[in-house]
Each structure stands twice: as C-alpha cells, then as structure tokens.
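Morning, I've got a small favour to ask if you have a moment. Here's the protein in full, and shout if anything looks odd to you:
***
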Amino acid sequence: MDGKDGVRAYGEHVNLGYTFKLPWEPRIFGAYAYGSGDNNPFDGRYKEFHGTILNDDSDLYGDMRVLTDQNGVTVEKIHASGLEIWVGGFSAAPLPNLNVTFCIHHFLASKVPTGFSKDIGAEFDSEISYKLTKGISFLVGLDKFYTGRFFAEASGSKSNINYCYIQAQADF
C-alpha cells in the first residue's frame, strides 16, 4: 500500500424488538447487520468494513465471540471477508427475579475465495439470570457455535464449539 488507496467500505446494523404486555413479559427481538467484504485488498480500493472493533455488541455477535467484528473471519489463512448477520431471539420473566433468554445468530460472509461457501455458521445462546437479593445475582449460560461449510472447507474440520458459564455477582 502506498497510502493512496481509496476506501469504499460500508456497513449497516438494525435492532428491533417488542415486549408484550402480558404475564412473564415475553419479548421477541431480531437484528440484521451487513459489512462489505473485499476479495482483493491490494487493488487500490479497500472495501472491507470493520466497524467498531471489540465493542460490547453481544446482541449481534453472540456471547461466545467466535466472530468479533464485521470484517469477517480467517481460518487456516483463508479469509472470508465482511459479514452478514441475522439474529432472532426470545426472552421472558416467568418469575419476578428470573429471566430466560434464547437467541440464534446466523453468520454469512460477504466475500469468499472462489470455491468456498459463504456459510460461516450459527451460534445458539441460552441464558438464565436470577436475582436472589437486591445485591446478589446469578447468571448461567449455555452456548453452541455450529460451524458452517466455510470452516469445514478451510480447515477440514466440522467441529462445533461449546461454551458454558456460571457467574455470581455481589454488589456492595
């Protein structure tokens, strides 16, 4: 790069949700994001969108953060550039101090090398939070990232990723 490259990258992101005025306060939500990709970053025009790197946007990228940014993912030196992300979820509060959330994130690449799939994968997140007292709460989560065809083609493996956590918080 000689410092004269043109930047033609773009991205978009929208979140929508609705909480029903019913017992348990059920909420449905969804999101969509798109970041442009670039299969040839050395042609004088930089087209890969990065967005805000390492932001706290778990509603978009998922709890596991297998993908952390709109720029895509590199697996075994094969880069899938830019991301298209679809998110859908549901939450409810069956008890006053208990909340459950289920969410799925589907990731597609904007640009991939010839012969590779754009299907990066899907992450399923489930979370239960419980507030025991005013200052003590607990959080339990179980997440799974189902690797898509891109991971299998780039790495030769279809292994999925599992993630479980338990968190306790005490406020003083």
